[in-house]
UniProtKB/TrEMBL annotation:
Its EC number is 1.8.1.4. The lineage of its organism: Bacteria, Pseudomonadati, Gemmatimonadota, Gemmatimonadia, Gemmatimonadales. SUPFAM superfamilies: FAD/NAD(P)-binding domain, FAD/NAD-linked reductases, dimerisation (C-terminal) domain. Disulfide bonds join C45-C50. Transmembrane segments: none annotated. Binds 1 FAD per subunit. NAD(+) binds at G184, G185, G186, V187, I188, G189, L190, E191, E207, G274. FAD binds at K54, G118, T147, G148, S149, D315. Residues 8-330 form the FAD/NAD(P)-binding domain. GO terms for cellular component: cytoplasm. This is Dihydrolipoyl dehydrogenase. It comes from Pseudogemmatithrix spongiicola. One of its GO terms (molecular function) is flavin adenine dinucleotide binding. It catalyses: N(6)-[(R)-dihydrolipoyl]-L-lysyl-[protein] + NAD(+) = N(6)-[(R)-lipoyl]-L-lysyl-[protein] + NADH + H(+). The active site is at H447 (proton acceptor).
Length: 468
């Protein structure tokens, strides 16, 4: 009854982009309504993305450790058994802690959650249709579109989330598949493929590009391919899926490599070929909202769309589909709306693959740096030469720097190895300050830590690594 129908800001979408924008705007004194139709806040990331996938990655790592590696440490565990129901329940509990956490933050910051489907109308009017059909009309000063993205499907293989899975179904398969086919060897395919492989499934990855994780540094994709193959993933690169379908409890996939036809059969298939912007409730053509070639909402560096006082952030604006990118864009949009001089930039956007070993990268790949025409230097240091990595029995991988030969400025950093998701942050900070290989190489790093690999790789780029 006491709802504010003319708030300063209505945010459509309660994912990492939308909820962070809402909180930041509220911190800056704006009255904020955030519209979300899902029964929980947090969007793709918290409900069916980052968080549940990391929960299952963590559990399946423990399982594989107990099964295969504990005995190397002198730990004999008899009768290790998988309780998949418990593993999936724990994942759901982790998700619930996070969605409730966002709800708590909304209350704390006095952000109103309007539960329902939001529709943007002309003149920045936002209509919200609740589950019971009730309509509420908001007339805010500003609107942020944070409607996220949805998985792309293959025309001949529509998702049923029983056998033909998107990320949603692949996070809750009720049994360990005998054979899981993963179409698309990107981040999502490799992470979820690794989960089910560790739990006992045969996993076949089919990738259209010449390498898995296309777009990454060549040394990284080569090393990752080698390690994942050794772990038991069957990887087919440069392979085009041409057809397929479900037949009862089986799925057939037809593919082609070098002109040769291939055929795969499995009980489950995960289609992880990419995601596209979701424009639920946003009729771009009718509103005159400018879209890019991939259907993404076009924005400037302050996250403004082509419509006055309408901003857009997150997966809906394209670029790298990452939660931390969405969050940062949300902060920028909120600050611009509050009258600050904020501006988004993407130079050092980190990207992580949470397999084991992990992969973490920021900045230019070696090939991209060479293509700029600048003289560059490359420094590499392996985890196998690091005492801490040896004591953890996790010696696969390396850290690689790409630097400007004239100034030693760090242009890119590419890591594959244990805990590199956390190791990368130091380098992203260095790059934000336009730091050099000397800055990192001459900084004291505690011994024995994995971070010494980062220091040594920076020294390697200067031609003076010590431990190799
Ligand atoms: P979303 O999170 O998609 O949120 C959009 C929200 O808007 C949704 O909740 C939707 O219900 C709501 N919505 C849409 N339209 C309307 C409407 N009209 N009215 C009301 N509500 C609406 N990124 C990482 O950085 N790290 C990871 O480890 C990672 N892992 C991932 C794993 C998987 C399996 C997947 C699928 C993605 C992963 N991502 C990861 C990507 C990450 O989830 C997205 O980049 C992020 O969620 C984008 O945030 P967003 O706010 O733009 O959109």
């Amino acid at each position: 009854a006491d709802q504010n129908l003319t708030p300063d800001l209505v945010v459509i979408g309660g994912g990492p982009g939308g909820y962070v924008a809402s909180i930041r705007a509220a911190q800056l004194g704006l009255s904020v309504v955030c519209v979300e139709f899902d029964k929980t806040l947090g969007g793709t990331c918290v409900n069916v993305g980052c968080i549940p996938s990391k929960a299952l990655l963590s559990s399946s790592e423990h399982y594989e450790f107990a099964l295969k590696h504990a005995k190397d440490h002198g730990i004999e565990i008899a009768g290790v058994q998988l309780n998949l129901q418990q593993m999936l329940k724990r994942k759901d509990d982790v998700v619930a802690q996070n969605t409730k956490g966002v709800e708590f933050l909304f209350k704390k910051n006095k952000v109103t959650w309007a539960k329902g489907v939001g529709t943007l109308k002309a003149g920045n009017v936002v209509e919200v249709k609740a589950l019971d059909g009730a309509l509420t009309t908001y007339r805010p000063k500003h609107v942020i579109l944070a409607t996220g993205s949805v998985p792309m499907q293959l025309p001949f293989l529509p998702f049923d989330e029983e056998r033909v899975l998107s990320n949603v179904g692949a996070l809750r398969i009720p049994e360990v598949p005998k054979h899981l086919i993963v179409i698309g060897g990107g981040v999502i395919g490799l992470e979820l493929g690794s989960v089910w492989r560790r739990l006992g499934a045969k996993v076949t990855v089919i990738e259209y590009a010449p390498t898995i994780l296309p777009g990454n540094d060549d040394d990284i994709t080569k090393e990752a391919h080698k390690i994942f193959t050794k772990q038991g993933l069957e990887i087919h690169t440069a392979t085009k899926v041409t057809g397929g379908g479900r037949n009862g409890s089986m799925v057939t996939i037809e593919a082609e490599k070098d002109g040769q036809a291939m055929r795969f059969e499995a009980d489950y298939v995960l289609v992880s070929i990419g995601r596209k912007p979701s424009l639920t409730g946003v009729d771009a053509a009718a509103l005159g909202l400018a879209l890019g070639t991939r259907g993404e909402i076009v924005v400037d560096a302050q996250m403004r769309t082509s419509l006055p006082n309408v901003f857009a952030i997150g997966d809906a604006v394209g670029g790298k589909l990452l939660a931390h990118k969405a969050e940062e864009e949300g902060v920028i949009a909120a600050e611009v709306i509050a009258g600050h001089h904020a501006k988004m930039h993407y130079h050092n956007m980190p990207g992580v693959v949470y397999t084991w070993p992990e992969i973490a990268t920021a900045g230019l790949t070696e090939a991209e740096a060479r293509a700029t025409g600048k003289a560059i230097k490359v420094g590499k240091f392996p985890f196998s030469a690091n005492g801490r990595a040896r004591s953890m029995a996790s010696t696969e991988g390396f850290v690689k720097f790409v630097t400007d030969a004239a100034t030693d400025e760090i242009l890119g950093c590419h890591m594959i190895g244990p805990n590199v998701s956390d190791l990368l942050s130091e380098i992203v900070l260095a790059m934000e300050y336009r730091g050099t290989a000397d800055d990192v190489g001459e900084t004291v790093h505690s011994h024995p830590t994995l971070s010494e690999v980062v220091k040594e790789a920076a020294l390697a780029a200067l031609g003076r690594a010590i431990h190799i």
